Amino acid sequence: MISAELRAEVEDFLYREARFADEFSLEEWEALLTDDFHYWVPAGRLEGDPSKQLAYLNDNRARVATRIRQLQTGKRLSQLPNSPMRRVISNIEIEPRNDEGISVVANFVIYELAAQSSGELRVWPGQAQYRLERIAGNLRMSAKWIELVTAHAGQRNLTFLI
Amino acid sequence: MKVDYRELVHTDRVHGSLLHDPEIFADEMERIFVQGWVFVGHESEVKNGGDWVKRQLGNESVLMVRAESGEVNVLANRCSHRGTALCWEHKGNAAFFQCTYHNWRFGLDGDLRAVPFPDGYSKPKEDLGLDRAGQIAVYRGFVFANLDGLAGTIDEHLGPAGYELIDRLCEMSPSGKIDLSKGWIGHRVQSNWKLWPESDSDGYHVGFVHASMSASTDTYYDDVAVGGDAVKSSRAVDYGRGHLELDWRPSYKKELSWLGITRDRVKEYYSALAQRVGNDLADQMLWDGPPHAFLFPNLFLGETVIAIVEPVSPGEMIHHHTSVQFDGADDAFNERLLRQTEAAVGPASFITTDDAITAERIQAGVSGTDRSWSSTSRGWIDLSRGLHREEINDDGVRSSDASDETTNRGFWYRYLDAMSGKDRH
Ligand code: FES
Ligand SMILES: [Fe+2]
């Protein structure tokens, strides 16, 4: 059993991370990451060795920095304007790890409006797996892995932070 | 009413209605995807007997299957009894295909093998096999099919340039073979399929659509495709028959530019390659890189990426891509190709996402045009850039500055031939 305090702290972190992503608060979002952060959205289940697969997205820390820089250029056509979007997170399961880290899984649904082109409302359901670390007393994120319900079906532009 | 394509496709302009009219789309699915040669997949996707993958060729779902004999077949994914789709996953391995409606069973060659309660039939089984592609051709593992079997030969379709482009890619592999079995990723775009041959072979847009890429990271496209000098030395080439290239080779400023790393990082790959082709040729290949080319109507050779253009409806398409893997290269090299592919192409990539949004904006722009306007000046798309300065050689190959619309025009020349029946014998 994890403590109510830990659950509250983790949920707080996840909701904040979600809000930063939804609102394109890019610097604030990036500040939540550890130096070895890994960001992964496979074209299938979350299984196997990511380095051997072709994924939708497989960013090490340097590449996620480029991703954020690209969004900050003001020239990123596919996010001009930024997608209005909101996500809901639920079914949060928390498991402390032996190495002081914390594993978290949660379900999410994102509603995104394709304001850059067709105006279509896009729905992105899936599961997120997070790895959190405690650094100088605060939680930080060292991995965010996303399994989309539609992983095998191909995707529309995914140029926001999922 | 029958569409007269000669009224919609001119040398210097094409009509916007070509990108959204449902009747035109229906004609294309028949004249290009049934009556013409199309790319289906690669042999390395079906290595073993019984391996199959599902593909969409125009309106028709097909299975590319490796038979026990080793032969690759392209079969309709449609039971010959009452039409039920036989496979609904993307790929698998099977000893036979069994329909789930009345359990008819088909061999990997498409022949009908068994039916329950056979006494009810007097027709011979031979008449009840699956529909299959009328012609199949395999070149260096690339599988092409012509569904109706009446398209002329693959040699006529590919021409010397089609073969040369495939050769140029495959020769860069240490064994001379490439592997395309890392799976295809679908990028779903709300645009007409023809905007992708255009975008994949357009040199004019790179500095504008991909400005955010240049501004956030080092990219070799700055050297080969952006700005005055680069677009002057790189070439837009129309080989004829709709096969197109943006030839970056003259503009690369250093070897391995196309891979974004230096020679010391690819030592193993280089020595494996040099062992087969010799040092001089291997050195040259490190400079030149694989081609950036489009083979009509649906195959993109995107340097280290291969993509298939799949039409869905007049305003909807899927750009499927996979990463080229060089057979005989070390794991680290091939993993580098995977990471490069993820950065460049697909729904979450740094590059083709902005092509996708551009295609969707074009779609929004042209969707209000009507083909009856072709007798007026309304609703046209201009493709005249560079028409006054493009060169044409003795083989009929046209080339011009990389920012010129020579490649775009080349696509439409072939399109007009296919749509007006000139491709037929
Ligand atoms: S429809 Fe396939 S067996 Fe009847
Ligand atoms: Fe582009």
Could you characterize what this model shows?
The complex is a heterodimer of chains A (162) and B (425). Chain A has 162 residues and is an alpha+beta fold. Chain A has a single domain, classed as Nuclear Transport Factor 2, Chain: A. In chain A, 22% of the residues lie in helices and 38% in strands. Chain A is built from three helices and six strands; from the N terminus they run H-H-E-E-H-E-E-E-E. In chain A, strands 2-1-6-5-4-3 form a six-stranded mixed beta sheet. Chain A is globular, with a radius of gyration of 16 Å. Chain A starts with a helix and ends in a 14-residue tail after the last strand. The mean pLDDT of chain A is 97. In chain B, the strands form six sheets. Chain B has a nine-stranded antiparallel beta sheet, sandwiched between helices. Chain B starts with 12 loop residues before the first strand and ends in a 6-residue tail after the last helix. In chain B, helix 8 crosses helix 9. Chain B is an alpha+beta fold and 425 residues long. Chain B contains twelve helices and 23 strands. In chain B, a hairpin with a 2-residue loop joins strand 17 and strand 18. The interface between A and B is large, with 38 and 39 residues. The site of FE2/S2 (inorganic) cluster has 8 residues of chain B, from loops.
Layout of secondary structure:
The complex is a heterodimer of chains A (162) and B (425).
Chain A: H1 4-22, H2 26-30, E1 33-41, E2 57-59, H3 61-72, E3 85-96, E4 102-113, E5 121-135, E6 138-148
Chain B: E1 13-15, H1 22-31, E2 37-42, E3 51-57, E4 60-66, E5 72-76, E6 91-93, E7 97-98, E8 105-106, E9 112-114, E10 135-139, E11 142-146, H2 154-170, E12 178-179, E13 185-189, H3 195-200, H4 206-209, H5 211-216, H6 221-224, H7 228-233, E14 235-240, E15 243-247, H8 267-277, H9 279-288, E16 292-295, E17 299-302, E18 305-313, E19 316-323, E20 325-326, H10 331-344, H11 352-366, E21 380-382, E22 391-392, E23 398-401, H12 406-419
Antiparallel strand pairs in B: 1-21, 2-11, 3-4, 3-6, 4-5, 7-8, 8-9, 10-11, 12-20, 13-19, 14-15, 14-23, 15-16, 16-17, 17-18, 18-19, 22-23
Helix pairs in contact in B: 8-9
The structure holds FE2/S2 (inorganic) cluster and fe (ii) ion.
Residues 79, 81-82, 84, 99, 101-102, 104 of chain B line the site of FE2/S2 (inorganic) cluster.
